[in-house]
Amino acid sequence: MTVDTTAPGPVGADPWSGQWVTDRLGVRLTGGPELTALIGLALRRNPKRAHLLVSQVLGKHVPQRPEVVHGAGLDLGRRVAALLGPAETARAVVLGYAETATALGHSVADGLDAPYLHSTRRPVPGLAPLGGFEEEHSHATSHLLLPEDPELLAGDGPLVLVDDEFSTGTTVLNTIRALHAAHPRERYVVVALVDLRTPADRSRLAAAAAELGARVDLVATADGGVHLPADVLDRARALIDAAPEQPRPAAPQGELTRLPLPWPDGLPDGGRHGFTPAHRRRLEETLPALGAALADAVGPRARRVLVLGCEELMYAPLRLADALQRRLPDAEIRFSTTTRSPVFAHDHPGYAIRTRLAFTAHDDPAGDDSTERYAYNVAPGSDPARRFDIVVLVVDDPADTPALHHGPDALLPRLRTATDHVVLAVLPSYRPAPPA
Length: 436
Hints:
This is Phosphoribosyltransferase. This protein has 436 residues and is an alpha/beta fold.
């Protein structure tokens, strides 16, 4: 089925959040209506690729209800469990990709009740990487695998690889080849919110699976394709160059408070070093108390609250947002995270990235030359209804640096111009015990 993404929506409805790009550049999505419900379009500040597929359910660029974000991953995990069957599900391990899919992969693992690991761009002193692989279009190793248990990926059960989108399959295929060379297994399952591969890409993955002697299945929420005009890079660059810069928020700085959350000792804050079913049960037991502490910090009159995570730190802030929503059912709670991806912002209802807060990097992994990070759709822009009265910023302790607090382009001062109250919650980053 092919859907024309240039067609107008119902009278009075908000336009599709990719309509502005489609109208000006001719970029079109082909697929069922479930595809355009999942993603919008924006323009990248990137000489190699003009467009960005902006997920509405990932919790990265677009603030979304936490139950929607977690639920999207849970649903995919349950579909994988149905595909594998109980015996194979019990042996499965899930691997997610940093930075964008760390919470999605963790949520898929929740749906399977399986051990979880995500790649990371943050090296840990004293912990040797189990491996590393390169992202497509990258000239340096951008993903490290740092499991506390070196046997986590050494089994022969199904390996479930999770990314937000499956565009060509190159990164996933590179990962499978590298891991299969070290620890061959019979079955892989690739999971994504959207599958946009061409027929040639699909044939390439099938050929690679046959070469490895392994079965590779794919599970996605929606599939389709992207049509790109031949001159899209030049036209996108011209649009960006001609656009005026968005004004910096000029409002007085809101209140800032620091919240000491009762995070349990020894509980990993995510899957950087592995997250087991036992960790999962412990987190579920403690979430009500964490939600109560957050509710006390934001107050009973909270109306519209954003819980904002930090780059790879997505899953813990997501679950905190969900716990807060359960404590404050009448409030509107949203979740998103900061990112290193430079995207052009344009304050138009038919464009996916309406506002941008650029700030100085306060957690600078090795090998990253960029000193700027971004929070999208956090500032309200021209629409007062989009304003959050409270932002809960959740970081881990390595990211709680002077660069977070001080300077004209530090994140905390920038956030305080976009909201009435910022609550800072710092989680202890899990540090594996040094090997014997």
